[in-house]
Amino acid sequence: MVTVCFALFFAMVAACLAAGWSVAWALLGGLVLFWLLGLRLGFTWGQLWEMAWAKCRKSLIVVRIILLIGVITGVWRCGGTIACCIVWGVGLATPRLFLALAFLLCAAFSYVLGTSYGVSSTLGVILMALARSGGVDPAVAAGVILSGVYFGDRCSPASSAASLVAAVTGTDLYRNVGRMLRTGALPTLLTLGAYLVLSQLHPLSQVDGAVLSALSDRFVLSWWTLLPAAVMFLLPLLKVPIQWTILISSGLSAVIAALVQGFSPAEILSAAWGGYRPEDPALAAVLSGGGITSMASSYVIVVLTGLYSGLLEGTGALEPLSVRARALADRTGRFPAMIAVSVLCAAVLCNQAVTSMMGEQVLGGAYQDREELAMDIENSGILIAGLIPWSIACSIPLAMLGADASALPYALLLWLIPLCYLFTKKRYYSAE
Q1: Exposed, middle or buried: residue 268 (CB in 10 Å: 0-12, 13-18, 19+)?
Q2: Tens digits of per-residue pLDDT, 138-167?
Q3: Considering only CA atoms, which of 128, 110, 294, 301 is closest in space to residue 188?
Q4: CA–CA dist 147, 130 (Å, integer)
Q5: Do the Cβ atoms of 392 and 426 come closer than 8 Å?
Q6: What is the pLDDT of residues 241-286, one digit of tens each?
Q7: Considering the entire predicted model, what is its pTM?
Q8: If you ran DSSP here, which 8-state letter would residue 379 be given?
Q9: Cβ contact 410:143 at 8 Å
Q10: Which stretches of 41-159 are DSSP H helices?
Q11: Sequence-separated (6 or more) residues with CB below 8 Å from residue 432
Q12: Given this model, what pLDDT does residue 411 score?
């Protein structure tokens, strides 16, 4: 019965992807399927709701952060922050190195901040606007940015994902970081080399003069407009929580939009809610977007995945996976088995953190070396979750960037780290 439910769920996901519908419909269908399965197993409606709500309640913090990110992406546009970065960035960017530099910038900032969401919603949005204004394929640019933001999300000491893996495996965070940097060195260099080639194939072309003129005419371009970005990058270094950082940056941008750019309070609130929608076609081409409503599908997906994963955990639907995973590890090795578990968990549970925890729960007994277990999770589940289009680890950053799943083939670091580690693991661990 469990196998039938999983098969139907994946069929619904495939149907949504083929039809171009939101995967939220498949998640809703999966929720119904596993609710019915729970009833069939003898659980009551009340018990099932408690299981589902226990997980969903914890996911609401993510909803709050996404809501704030929607606000900041709207007010940054009318505050002139993105316009200033475009105009000044055009003069500073090296056209045939743009994509490689975008990857390095995102990797550096994500290592410092330790958050894929924070970098995607700030630096990522700026780089995407610059890419669109310069004629770079948005799918390629978004894939490059996704690679960069996951560099730090995986191996930064400030990353919640890295801290979670250290906690569930009982290992030292900083020893793990050192190992992650070593195991990630080769794939990072290969990724940078590939992006140097793509930079030649997709150079940042000369931006239409009408766009630059429209930006300069509409916005006051000064150092003031960069203050919201500076706040967003500096406050996390001072250990200010991300929610407060986004609020402070958004508030500062709103003040600048009113006092410097001449927007009315109603226009600023409209940008925060529904995004910035300039009437000038030249501005609309590069600046339209942002706002709370732009992230609507992400809110729904987060809530549904919280309910859904609670049902799966509470009903024990994933328990048979452990026996099969250990048998697979005996035949193919531990890391290939961890990849298989991570793909399944990320596809079913749609959540990076839950995928990491399930990797330890399902396969932890097959490992004698807990540091090896931590590295296997870091080099599989943490990254694989970012490649599943309906996972919140993938769908939310792409929504922030205004991109879709066509960007995933270009997120090379997320592919290369598991592949390189698969063939080089024996260099780090003598016994498999």
Answers
A1: buried
A2: 999 999 999 999 998 888 876 777 877 887
A3: 110
A4: 18
A5: no
A6: 777 888 998 999 999 999 999 999 999 999 999 988 888 887 777 7
A7: 0.74
A8: T
A9: yes
A10: 45-79, 81-92, 98-113, 116-119, 125-133, 138-155
A11: 333, 334, 425, 426
A12: 96
